[in-house]
Structure formats: structure tokens, C-alpha cells
Amino acid sequence: xxxxxLVLLIASLGATQAQAGIFDDEEARRQLTxxxxxxxxxxxxxxxxxxxxxAQIQRQADEIARLRxxxxxxxxxxxxxxxRTQDFYLDLDSRLRKxxxxxxxxxxxxxxxxxxxxxxxxxxxxxQDYEGALNQFKAAKxxxxxxxxxxxxxxxxxxxxxPNAQYWLGxxxxxxxxxxxxxxxxxxxxxxxPDSAKASDAWLAIATCQQELGNPTGVKRSLETVIAxxxxxxxxxxxxxxxxxx
Length: 246
Prior knowledge:
By secondary structure, the protein is mostly helical.
């Protein structure tokens, strides 16, 4: 009887250990399954975040490309607008010159011996020199135009064309991207010839150079000067529009 009990006890212990082994395997599988599910969820979340980041980067790249295209378009329009304005003023200047050019006096027998002082006072010669400098500018020969206009204002300081020549001298320097000399030239127009037709445009040209040189205070002061000194003029209207954009 004791032997039978012993056998039954051993069998019972073996069954218990076997059952415990089964439970341990199931727990291990459950933990592995949970770990796999959590790992896959983490990978899915990371993949989703990477996709969102990639999409965000692409959107930013597209926006940068759009803005770059917009800047290029605005730059081109500004360049075209500046060119049209310049052509307009050149054409207007040439048209006005036709009305202002006096009739040349008939040459005298001793005209070949005319003193240099007399040549300086010859309106026809003044007109010829001015037109020559202006034609250099029209041909985009800005270096030559600057030299020609500088020579003109030095040779004919009291000429009625001196303010115009000084103004185009400033534009010739600006066309060469020399804003410092351009401002110096235009400042002579505003101080020496403040009542000339080019004075208000000279102030606008100064403001443009100041903007390129990174001087917003100077730009504002120059534009306000145009409005104050030359109200009801196209230059004043342009200055007001430029101030509104700031």
C-alpha cells in the first residue's frame, strides 16, 4: 500500500512539473508575441514619421523653388521696368533737345582760327558734345558715356544742358554698379541745380543707390525730400509709392 502511494505521488509530481513547463512555454510565447507587436508598432510609427518629414522637406523645397521663381520674375520685371523708364527719359531728353537746339551760326571765313573760348560758348558745339555723350549712353557704353558727360560739365559748367549732363553722368555710374560715384554725381544735381527739371529724378536715383547700399534711413530721407521739395510731380508720386512699400 505504501509503495502504491509512493508511485502515485511521483506520478502526480511529474504531471505538475509537466503542466508548469507547458505554462512557462505559453508565457514565453505570449511575451514574444507582445514584444513583436510593440516592435512592429514602433517601426510603423518611425516609418510614418519619416514619411511625414520627407513630405515636409519636399513641401519646403517646392516653396523655396516657388519663391525663387517669384524673385526671378520680380527681378526681371524690375529690370524691364527700369529699362523702359530709362528709354523713356532718353527719348524724352532727345525730343526736348530738338526744340532747345539753336540754329548754328553761319561759319565766318576765319572760323578755322576760332579761339577755344569762343568754341566753349558755341551752343551748336555744346549740343553736339551733349548728343555725343547721350548716344554713348544709349549704346550701353557706360564707361565712355561717363567720361563724355564728365568732360561736358567741366567744359560747359554754365550751360543749360549741364544739369542734364550731370544727371546722366550719375546714371552712367549707376549702370556700372558704382553707387558711390552715382550718389556723388546726383548730389551735384540736387545742390548745384536744385531748380532744374532733373533735380527730383536725381533724388530718386540717390534713393535707389542708398537702397542697394543697405541704407534704409537714407532712402526714406531722400524720398521724403522729393515729396517735400517737388510736390505734384511724377517723381513725388513715385516716391510716395516707394514709401508705401516699405
